Amino acid sequence: DQQVKQNSPSLSVQEGRISILNCDYTNSMFDYFLWYKKYPAEGPTFLISISSIKDKNEDGRFTVFLNKSAKHLSLHIVPSQPGDSAVYFCAASHGGTSYGKLTFGQGTILTVHP
Amino acid sequence: NAGVTQTPKFQVLKTGQSMTLQCAQDMNHEYMSWYRQDPGMGLRLIHYSVGAGITDQGEVPNGYNVSRSTTEDFPLRLLSAAPSQTSVYFCASRPPGQVRGYTFGSGTRLTVV
């Protein structure tokens, strides 16, 4: 059972426009959410995160929104740049005895066209 | 500061062979994990460790063994390779209490024929 889902395998946008990547989750025990960016032949790198007690977190061009009632989060990139082209993974974690283990979504391939 | 180092980067195995994927980190991180990435599946947790001498199973542990004799090293052993284990394997580490602090290695691409 996929507890974290990214239903869009790919997204294509023009440079300068907004990119919106979506993620849904089913486990209400998740209390921390992260976005990772991955280039080919490299490991994922941390991009931005949000705690379940917040509904928005910004870091420069990147903003993550969390809707707990809908169990949905999204990553907004404004403005999009060609260097943002990569695979984006949504991940979730919960505390307690899970020791911060991450559950990942399937990933969304973002392509930003010049 | 090398971060998380994985070796080898590429490997081809025959069905039934065994091998060890190496992972080493120089950041004194207590938590280390192994993930596999498959198309359409994202990254799935294989095994993890919260410190030297302590390991536990993740989501997809079958066919893999781990041990953690030192803080720095967390090798992943394939006991008898199967084509279903063809994947890209990532090792990650982080300090305790920092869920956002995972550092990933660059991966090992394994093909089992």
Which helices and strands, and how do they pair?
The complex is a heterodimer of chains A (114) and B (113).
Chain A: E1 4-5, E2 10-14, E3 19-25, E4 32-38, E5 45-51, E6 56-59, E7 62-67, E8 72-77, E9 86-93, E10 103-104, E11 108-113
Parallel strand pairs in A: 2-11
Antiparallel strand pairs in A: 1-3, 3-8, 4-5, 4-9, 6-7, 7-8, 9-10, 9-11
Chain B: E1 4-7, E2 10-13, E3 19-25, E4 31-38, E5 42-51, E6 54-57, E7 64-66, E8 76-78, E9 87-94, E10 103-104, E11 108-112
Parallel strand pairs in B: 2-11
Antiparallel strand pairs in B: 1-3, 3-8, 4-5, 4-9, 5-6, 7-8, 9-10, 9-11
Description:
- The complex is a heterodimer of chains A (114) and B (113).
- Chain A contains no helices and eleven strands.
- Chain A is an all-beta fold and 114 residues long.
- In chain A, β4 (32-38) and β5 form a beta hairpin.
- With 113 residues, chain B is mainly β.
- In chain B, the strands form two sheets. In chain B, strands 2, 4, 5, 6, 9, 10 and 11 form a seven-stranded mixed β-sheet that branches. Chain B has a four-stranded antiparallel β-sheet with strand order 1-3-8-7, with no helix packed on it.
- Classes of the chains: A mainly beta (114), B mainly beta (113).
- Chain A binds chain B through residues 4, 6, 9, 32, 34, 41-46, 49, 89, 91, 93, 99-107, and chain B through 4, 31, 33, 35, 40-45, 48, 50, 58-59, 90, 92, 94, 98-107.
